[in-house]
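User: Sequence in, structure out. Go.
Assistant: Echoing your sequence, followed by the structure tokens.
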Amino acid sequence: MQLTPDDIIVFSIAGVGINRTVVNTWIVMAILVGGSLAITRNLRPDVPPSRWRTILELIVTVIKSQIEEISREASRHVLYFSGTLFLFIAVSNLLLVVPGFYPPTASLSTTAALALSVLIAVPLFGIARQGIGGYLKHYVQPSVVMLPFNIISEFSRGISLSIRLYGNVMSGAVIAAILLGLAPFFFPVVMDMLGLLTGLIQAYIFAVLATVYISSATTPSGTSVNTEKKP
């Protein structure tokens, strides 16, 4: 039983092995980019929207409203980042129902990369919104004594994000493999439905947490962020 797609080498380039995680990440990226280009290629007022365009606009509208509920402000600058995270993780997890497909999010290297992107994005959004001085004030709140603890808290966010997503996706794949081995004619449909639901929930949690962290960094000290949607 493969616990991670990192161990599966698909082909090599100049002696460097390309594993299943990298290949499946490229497949997910091709689906997202190719699908978006195909759906939006005829964006003209005289052309009625297609069914796929309507679905895509509905997804973007829902993501935008969720971000606005958390940040309580215009969300366009966060929409591109958190929305992309959600779509990538959701499509990766939903493709679990395809026989032989290992979701890239079942690899710790992928989830760590996603968490690292959040760690980099948080200070960038904070500095862009409040300036360097305004953003750095977060680290000395409520007093300068809290500086080391706030720095540790910043890094622990990234670790918890990567471990949470990797653990949930990997454990779900392992449990599905075990149940399929015990009762291959009964569990496939049930596990496929459970995998779809779990994959969407994990994508939602990751995107919401990223939005909460970014909103905290862009909110001036002394004001609060709406975390009612935080799981």
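User: And one key feature?
Assistant: The longest helix spans residues 147-182.
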